[in-house]
Amino acid sequence: MLTPTRHLLQIEGMHPPEIGALLDLAESYVLLNRSGKTQRDLLRGRTLINLFFEDSTRTRTSFELAGKRLGADVINMSVANSSVNKGETLLDTAATLNAMHCDLLVVRHAQSGAPALLAQKVDAAVINAGDGTHEHPTQALLDALTIRRRRGRLEGLTVAICGDVLHSRVARSNIHLLTAMGSRVRVIGPPTLIPAEASRLGVDVFHDMKSGLQDVDIVMMLRLQKERMSSGLVPSSREFFRFWGLDAEKLAFAKPDALVMHPGPMNRGVEIASDVADDPIRSVIKEQVEMGVAVRMAVLDVLSRQAKRND
Ligand code: NCD
User: Fold this and answer.
1) Ligand 1 pocket: which residues have CB below 6 Å?
2) Nearest residue (CA) to ligand 1, atom 7
3) Of 27, 118, 180, 270, which one is least surrounded by beta carbons within 10 A?
4) Which strands make up the sheet holding 73-78, listed edge to edge?
């Protein structure tokens, strides 16, 4: 079994062999994608629905590509945010989707726990594509694959996750995955953007980039998620960039060959300077996007096999 349940709802609770096996399988899909071949027999006759209650470019497109490369029928449903009671909407949607006999349901929702709720109500295997500030498991898997391919391992590396950790489901999933796989994780940001439970998650907390980035192998930047901020947690974008934005000067505190990552979408000049984001040697941001397709193919592959066994 490659995931703890027949769904993929979170990284928390997954064991290193399960994570390692998913990454190994994704590795084979990187090669398949680079060869230009597809494997359309694998999900032939299966239906994948992308149900996105929040905006997305990379995640939705890569799930669509992943599904199509494996032969699934893919349907995209974008549900605009509305003020209606979210619980009721979700359950209505679940009933509708169930009646359509969908096999794989990819869900993004502004509320933490929404995919888990749907998973209880539908027959499909549910994949969390980002829920509120909770988790974004396939993003952590693709980040891990990017790091593992570049560094050959995850164990013993020091990874700094920087900026708006408080609102980031990407940060949470990465913290669970990287600590489980033996990396040391630091979070760096202003006290207002570091969650109170950070040290309980087994990470080291820093409030300044100079000491936090000292000798790290990987610098992972996060988007400043203004849409999730109810009050002004940061003074201004310019001020934020001055103290927490990654520019060449701050990157120099990390190891000389440290890699720069960002899950996208990027706010250039807010959390990251353009020359660092586009640095052809240090930045692996485009590679993260490529790994995203391979990781999602691996996840769809594994979950559909598990579903077949349960048939
Ligand atoms: C992230 C998300 O939606 O959680 N984006 C992504 O999936 N690549 C990060 C973000 O929105 O900043």
Assistant:
1) 58-59, 130, 136, 139, 169-170, 223, 225, 263-264
2) 59
3) 27
4) 73-78, 47-52, 104-109, 125-131
